[in-house]
Amino acid sequence: MSEQLEKKVGGKRPGAGRKPGSGLYQESTTVMRVPVSQKAVVSDLLAAYAKKQQRQQYRYDLDSPQGFEQPGLHVQALALPLYQSKVPAGIPSPADDHVDRRLDPNTYLIDKADSTFFVTIQGESMIEAGLMPGDKAVVDKAKVAVVGDIVLAMIDGEFTIKTLAKQPNGHPKLLPANASGKYQPILIQGQMQFEIWGVVTGSFRRFR
Predict the structure, then answer these.
(1) Which residues of 79-118 are buried (b: 16+ CB within 10 A; e: fewer)?
(2) In the Enzyme Commission scheme, what number(s) does this protein have (predicted)?
């Protein structure tokens, strides 16, 4: 009787313990002894390795923007006609009575020149928000981001543009705008370095 009880409560149980690949380092671990003086060094190396493993999980979702640019220092004011009538594929009448008002593209796109910069969109993760590859996104670093804003964020040293949302635990998450399923939400976890650099307030592109 005692032998049967010992077999039930002792030894390794099939399926027990942490599953391989489910830990911080995404692979099996082992125990080793290190000198006390080198403990901090080894811990830093392991932390850097863990971040590298995490980046590999979402690196294809970032579509990191490129070409950071600032508005020109001496931008000439423009006053172009803004027509009342909406013509899908034609030329609006040049008659003065069709002009609603004059519009300056600079003031329309930029709220504060000293806090605004432009980045070039890469990839297709935000196409359903109207941000296409090659577009210039207008980013205002002075605006406070709220849930629902499109933001320029940095994750572990890499930039991405996504829509800001929240996880059930209150931590941020970044949502793509592409229904193809190619891009997945990025869940921000405690070990990640996460920072919002600005709110995307608009975009523009050239056709020729």
Answers:
(1) eeeeeeeeeeeeeeeeeeeeeeeeeeeeeebbeeeeebbb
(2) 2.7.7.7
CATH number (domain holding residue 131)? 2.10.109.10
Q: Is 125 a catalytic residue?
A: yes
Would you state the pLDDT for residue 35?
86
Containing domain of residue 148, as a range?
58-73+105-204
Give me the mean pLDDT over the 132-156 stretch: 95
Do residues 103 and 79 touch, judged by C-beta distance below 8 A?
yes
Round to whole Å and give the CA distance between 126 and 200.
12
CA distance 9 to 5: 6
**Better-scored residue on pLDDT, 84 or 123:** 123
Number of domains in the chain: 1
List the catalytic residue out of 136, 143, 162, 173: 162
H helix or E strand, kind and range, residue 164: strand 158-166
Active-site option among 51, 52, 112, 125: 125
Q: Is 112 a catalytic residue?
A: no
